[in-house]
Design goal:
InterPro entries: CHIP_RING-Ubox (IPR045202), CHIP_TPR_N (IPR041312), TPR-like_helical_dom_sf (IPR011990), TPR_rpt (IPR019734), Ubox_domain (IPR003613), Znf_RING/FYVE/PHD (IPR013083). The structure is a single chain. This protein is mostly helical. The protein folds into four domains: 56 residues, no CATH class; 110 residues, Serine Threonine Protein Phosphatase 5, Tetratricopeptide repeat (Alpha Horseshoe), CATH 1.25.40.10; 70 residues; 74 residues, Herpes Virus-1 (2-Layer Sandwich). A three-stranded antiparallel beta sheet has the order 1-2-3. Strands 5-4-6 form a three-stranded antiparallel beta sheet. Strand 1 and strand 2 form a beta hairpin.
């Protein structure tokens, strides 16, 4: 009996070991995906491009996350034990540009949440992924968890406000976006116009909803009052017909025509009154250029910077004193003595308010 295995036997044995190792790695990866709560199989992920290939290496099997991602070749062990430094907040924000990378960072954020569920940054990381993947409810949940741990977390309020805005919960969205804006000022964090622009959008959408409601109520009121006028005229006509049966028919007809004319005149006056107070078919709107870029309120004392941006004086002065000497939109160096009164804008605002007094409540 030959004590040595032939070449074919050795090759078959190696192939069998390789097959088993690949199965173990695939199973480990599938368990990780299940922890993420994703309802796609490994084959789905492969076809979607999140895990494109399995390559055999001398020591391990590497998974290519995406051709465009920086950590292009990671072993399953690396994926499960990646160092915290690899998912720092700044790199996280700069690298997430698509679904593949969101899925990757979503995985890392979930690992770290499992390792250390008391770090709010991991929850805001995953909340941002949910935002990019349009999972508004999931993003809200992660943001609320982060804020439970640290209520002064700017990004927690910011991401929560964005998710609530997409869910059309405008009041709460504005509350959190405003809080994020205030905290950014207090902590001297520069988000440029990112938070401010989202806050303007939220206020604009809430205003539009309120306008739709106002228009509907006015139309309903006009319809109701018009109906009452018609009903009153009908009752008067019937009364004339019954009380004047013995009178001249021509006199009765004249009386009925008088009642109907009065009814039509009342309705015309009513329509004119509603049109004068506010044209119900025209949505009231305050142009963005009439509002400050910091407080989002109508400009009262507009000043212009060398960059050509107009601000409310008290708002930009407060920004320069509390945050830093730079333009909050362009981020160009700015000092208080460079602020110039914008008299042209002041005239435009005054004329607009004179013609649209309702804007005082905007």
């Amino acid at each position: 009996m030959n004590k040595w295995l032939n070449t074919d036997d050795i090759s078959n044995e190696i192939n069998e070991i390789t097959r088993r190792e690949k199965e173990l790695i695939t199973n480990d990866l599938q368990e990780l995906i299940n922890l993420m709560g994703r309802r796609r199989s490994y084959s789905d992920l492969s076809s979607a491009g999140n895990f494109n290939r399995i390559t055999e290496d001398a020591d391990s099997f590497n998974f290519d996350i995406s051709p465009s991602t920086s950590p292009s070749d990671l072993s399953i062990n690396d994926l499960l034990t990646m160092d915290l430094a690899s998912i720092r907040q700044e790199s996280f924000l700069s690298e997430t540009s698509g679904d593949n990378q969101c899925s990757f960072h979503h995985t890392l954020a979930l690992q770290e949440e499992i390792k250390n569920p008391t770090m709010p940054t991991y929850f805001t990381n995953r909340a941002l992924c949910h935002l990019k993947l349009k999972r508004w409810d999931s993003s809200c949940q992660d943001c609320r968890k982060a804020l439970d741990m640290d209520s002064s977390l700017v990004k927690g309020h910011f991401f929560l406000g964005q998710a609530l805005l997409e869910m059309e919960n405008y009041d709460e969205a504005i509350k959190h976006l405003q809080r994020a804006n205030d905290l950014a000022k207090e902590q001297k964090l520069n988000f440029g116009d990112d938070i401010a622009s989202q806050l303007r959008i939220a206020r604009k959408k809430r205003w539009n909803v309120q306008e739709e409601k106002r228009i509907t109520q006015e139309i309903e009121l006009l319809t109701y009052v018009t109906k009452l006028i018609h009903e009153d005229a009908t009752r008067q006509v019937e009364k004339v017909k019954h009380s004047m049966e013995d009178l001249n028919m021509e006199f009765v007809q004249d009386r009925i025509m008088e009642i109907e004319a009065k009814c039509e005149n009342s309705i015309s006056e009513l329509n004119a009154l509603f049109a004068k107070v506010d044209d119900r078919r025209r949505r009231r709107d305050v142009p963005d250029f009439l509002c400050g870029k910091i407080s989002f309120e109508i400009l009262r004392e507009p000043v212009i910077t060398p960059s050509g941006i107009t601000y409310e004086r008290k708002d930009i002065e407060e920004h320069l004193q509390r945050v830093g000497h730079f333009d909050p939109v362009t981020r160009v160096k700015l000092t208080q003595d460079q602020l110039i009164p914008n008299f042209a804008m002041k005239d435009v605002v005054d004329n607009f308010l004179q013609e649209n007094e309702w804007a005082l409540d905007y």
